[in-house]
Amino acid sequence: MHGITIKCLARLKSIIIIFMSVGMPAGIYAEKQPEYTRAEIKVSYRYHEKFLRGNTQYTERDIPMLLLVNSKQSKFYCQGTEYKDSLKSTPSGRAKAKQMMDIAVRKYIESKDESAMNSIVYKTFMYIFKDYTLEQTTVYDKAGITEMGVYAEPFSELRWDIGDSTKTILGYECVMATAHYHGRKWTAWFAPEIPLQDGPWKLCGLPGLILEAVEEKGHHSFIADGMVKSNQIMYPIYDKDRYESINRLDMLKSLRNYRDNSNSIAKASTGGMLDLGPDAPVQTEYDFLETDYRL
Fold first, then answer.
1. Which of 23, 29, 177, 182 could tie 160 with a disulfide, CB 3.0–4.6 Å?
2. pTM
3. How far is the C-alpha of 285 from the C-alpha of 275, rounded, in Å?
4. DSSP assignment of 115-167
């Protein structure tokens, strides 16, 4: 009996060695993946902004944005921005990004068509995360020529007055609401049929999803142009460590300084080797989404 047991153990050992050499069943030794939050609804918005282009020309553009949202969390961002950031996160991605840049620059030189640069130029850097358990918004965005900043703020800084006017957006009857928020007056339209207290950018806190929001001067607006049910993962941003914790107002002041003095900054940082001409005039007409940093 003892001899049979030894033979059985030896055979079992051999089976285990073979089993391990061909690979364990998937997942047994695999690294456990993080459990990310998933959306319930995905809403696409057209973010329209007017801004100073170059030194003297005022222009406007539309930026496609996405809102991934459930009853507890949301993420508002531009897919193009996330894709470019994802490329920078790996060696192979950086190589692809360089290849894309070389192709875009070559096309632009040949055709002088600025659309050739769309694949590599950032139209926005913002990511907005809302947490309804903490009642807090976290913002990641550009803070200077190379600086990136992050800050958090409570939902309580945004207060709405709900009106009586209604209009239909994407087939939903929406109700008007207004709010003064960080230097601008916003008019929003929310859908009570969609019981999510969220919306584009930082806008939230109404008894229904915000499908449209326009600031008083018409320089900034967010208009929903599509909505579907979704279980898409709300991935965190890439390379979170590059974002420095900074006060909101200080971040906006820093960004304003960069926008108004970018040519001088570039010239100083390169010892005069890069001279892009005179700086832009001090911005007085068009400004950021928030303007209270000037107070």
1. 177
2. 0.83
3. 26
4. GGGTTT--S---EEEEETTTTEEEEEEE-SSS-EEEEEEEGGG---EEEEEEE
